[in-house]
Amino acid sequence: MLYPHGIDEALSIYSIVADFQISESIYSPTIECIISVIDGVSLLDKFNILGDERVQIILAKKPLDDSSEEETFEIDLRIAEIINYTNNSPGQQFYQFHCVRPHMYINQSKLLQRPFSGTAAQIISKILKSDLDVQFGQVNISSKNTIRGIFPAIKPLEAIYWLLRNTYDDGTPYFIYDTFTKGMQLKSYKDMINQTTYETYNNSQFYQNKPGTEEYYGEKRRRILKISSDNYMGKLAETASGNFAATLHTIDISNKEYKRFSFAYNGKNKLNTNRPYSRDVKIRNRSYDQIFDNKNYYVSLNSSAFDNYSNYHEPNKTTIMESEATLHNMDFIVHNLNISGDLELCVGSKIEVVIVNSNEDREDRSDKLNSGLYIVTDIVNRFGKSHEQSIVIKKDSI
């Protein structure tokens, strides 16, 4: 449904939509929708479309039998821009509506110029509710260290990401992201790895159940149609990024006190059992978790800034090394999967993947390296003649 300016009723554009896709990512504060339009009725000109109109998408999920009610999903968006316009023949135009959540427009029209205090997660939660009018799903506000400061005339989302840089949960980073069916989420990586496994997917070649049955559709929903990886594995860049060892230097400018801290990978917050490197590998007689000087962090502190609060950088003390290592180790193994569409699958979900090596002549033919628990970080829902998903999954261990 499209809501042009100056018109009381919504316009149904279903008949001129060729297809559309909805994308979500744990690295994005909004879902994005691309609606492809084949326009033979001069919609843009006739209704004076300006590129900021409200769009409402209603999706229906049909039950497998008549005993259950049809499940519907509604999503409100606004056009951010009209892209890829072409007019190659008289009377027919092609273009795409690039749509985002309404809070992205609010963000562009507001600056934060006020003091703040509390834990970083609490401050972020307040910005989402009070400044961006976001009704969110799950929010974890358990980050420690109360901080205090002043927002220096920055947009709400800029303030949120500025705070997220120093927001941790047991040494793991936080993510703020929007999902298609569950709304805005503020969760730590620890939340993600400790949640219940959503589903187990496999690349088996054969189906066990008869087509058309509920069991068959369950099998099909869990089937991996294609798996690929653009950047599979490597230790060269990881060694320099502080994935397994690092050093932190702090200087307290109030009393001129310098301290030095070291970090070695301990794997306490990881998805699978085994660490992502071998301790048998040595570089100049040191294993990866003993090369402390390969990555250095520098943090400026001010213990006298406030009486009962810490300054903005205080949460970084020692925690930044573990959090950055966790963030980088998420990319240990990254795969792109094509699967059948599932509206309940959201980014941030934990899934299990079982990859079968059909050429192996043994009872357990699973690929131990590529199988295991993963976090879903990106999803592209494609709606045309069918609903399919392209998802990006990541894991930090074997």
Structure, described:
This protein is α+β, with helices and mostly antiparallel strands. The protein has four domains: 2-101, Thrombin, subunit H; 106-188; 195-231 and 332-395, Baseplate protein-like domain - beta roll fold (Phage tail proteins - horseshoe like beta roll fold); 236-325, no CATH class. It contains eight helices and 21 strands. The strands form four sheets. Strands 1, 2, 3, 4, 5, 6, 13, 14, 18, 19, 20 and 21 form a twelve-stranded mixed β-sheet that branches. Strands 8-12-11-10 form a four-stranded mixed β-sheet. Strand 5 (71-89) and strand 6 (92-100) form a beta hairpin. Helix 3 runs antiparallel to helix 4.
Lay out the secondary structure.
Blueprint lengths: L1 E2 L13 E9 L6 E8 L3 H4 L7 E8 L9 E19 L2 E9 L2 H6 L6 E5 H12 L4 E4 L6 E5 L5 H9 L3 E2 L2 E8 L3 E6 H6 L5 E3 L11 H8 L2 E5 L7 H5 L4 E8 L4 E8 L31 E6 L17 H11 L3 E8 L9 E5 L17 E12 L3 E9 L3
Parallel strand pairs: 8-12, 13-19, 15-17
Antiparallel strand pairs: 1-4, 2-3, 2-20, 3-6, 4-5, 5-6, 7-9, 10-11, 11-12, 14-18, 15-16, 18-21, 19-20, 20-21
Helix pairs in contact: 3-4
